[in-house]
Amino acid sequence: MQLSVGIVVILVSVSCVITIPVPDNADLARIVNGETVDITEIPYQAALRRRVLSGWAHNCGAVIITNRGLLTAAHCVETFVSQPSLLRVVVGTSSRLTGGKTYDVSVIYSHESFSATTLEHDIALLGTSKIMDFSQSVAPVSIASEHYVLPDGTGAVVSGFGTTSYEGSSSEVLMAARVSIVSQSVCARAYLRIATIGEGMVCAKGSNPPRDACQGDSGGPLVVRNVLVGIVSWGEGCANTNYPGVYTRVSEYNPWIKQKLELLRATG
Ligand code: 4AZ
User: Fold this and answer.
1) C or N terminus of the chain, fewer CB within 10 Å?
2) Does residue 58 sit in the same domain as residue 136?
3) How far is the CA of 237 from the centre of ligand 1 (A)?
4) Which of 103-137 are b and which e, b meaning 16 or more Cβ less than 10 Å from the residue's Cβ?
5) Cα 89 to ligand 1 centre (Å)
6) What range(s) does the Peptidase S1 domain occupy (predicted)?
7) Under a CB-based contact definition with an 8 Å cutoff, are residues 229 and 156 in contact?
8) 26 domain-assigned
């Protein structure tokens, strides 16, 4: 989600940018300054689509964590919580528009404390109606434990089907970029006049050239050595050297995720 300097009110209107109906065949885009990757390299990447008049539109990224469970950002599913049938996930494809396997979403657990103003607790668990078949191109990633230590400067990979620049050009293929974890204090200082970097957030940036997640990447994975440490959440623009990308800090939500996975097993 894009955050505009000084005007938090704009959050609400700007969040509409990612919910404007886009036809399924629209030419959208990707990560900024990333490289194309095959889905077998990032088999936990999923695309979240939403129902529109003309079919299904790309909404956000999502991350496979069990054979029925995917994580995404709460801001991606906020308006669908009571209507999961308006969402579906597509897995196992490097192309945003073709291939892969589609699964209906039957249940959405959005974090109870998610705030659309502060973007705190920007996490949701999706349950598919059918069990997903795992393969070389469809596989879960493990989630960071509650006590996972993520040192400043750690290398991570962010991926998705989002835009290649802020309001920019497009691609149909999965992209990934190497970024490094930015310290909480440096990130808080960068965003001082704009927003609060909470405990449940973690920042990352890539340099030379600047690399970052962008619009449409939200809900997608930030991974360190095959462990999911972040979920694409928001930022001021994309690949703006003054503003790191902001992610939901997965380790902080490990107990919440476990609890919702248990609910999914027991009910959904
Ligand atoms: C978005 O609108 C978005 N640069 C996601 C991530 C970032 C900016 C915008 C971070 O989905």
Assistant:
1) C
2) yes
3) 7
4) bebbbbbbbeebeeeebbbbbbbbbbeeebeeeeb
5) 20
6) 31-262
7) yes
8) no
Q: Which domain holds residue 106?
A: 43-140+253-266
- Give the CATH number, domain containing residue 63: 2.40.10.10
Torsion of CA 260, 125, 144, 164, to 10 degrees: -170
9 belongs to a structural domain: no
Q: How many domains does the chain have?
A: 2
As for ligand 1, residues whose beta carbon falls within 6 Å of it are 1-2, 18, 212-218, 232, 234-235, 238, 245
- Indicate whether 200 and 135 sit together in one domain: no
Per the structure block, which two tokens stand in for 200?
């449940």
Question: Can you say how many angstroms the Cα of residue 50 is from the centroid of all Cα atoms in its chain?
Answer: 15
**Best residue among 218, 222, 242, 246 to mutate for probing ligand 1, ranked by most atoms within 8 Å of CB:** 218
Spacing, Cα 218 to ligand 1 middle (Å): 6
Torsion-angle region of residue 82: left (phi > 0), alpha (psi -120 to 50) or beta?
Answer: alpha
pLDDT < 70 regions, the chain: 2-30, 169-171
The pTM for the full model equals: 0.89
Answer yes or no: do 130 and 57 share one domain.
yes
Residue 15 maps to a domain: no
Assess if residue 7 is contained within a domain: no
Q: Which of 161, 215, 236 to probe ligand 1 with, by most ligand atoms within 8 A of CB?
A: 215
pLDDT digits (tens, 9 = 90+) for 136-149: 999 999 999 999 99
Atom of ligand 1 at shortest distance to CA of 14?
A: 2
Q: Are residue 121 and residue 195 in the same domain, yes or no?
A: no
Query: Do 169 and 129 fall within a single domain?
Result: no
Contacts of 10 (CB under 8 A, 6+ apart): 4
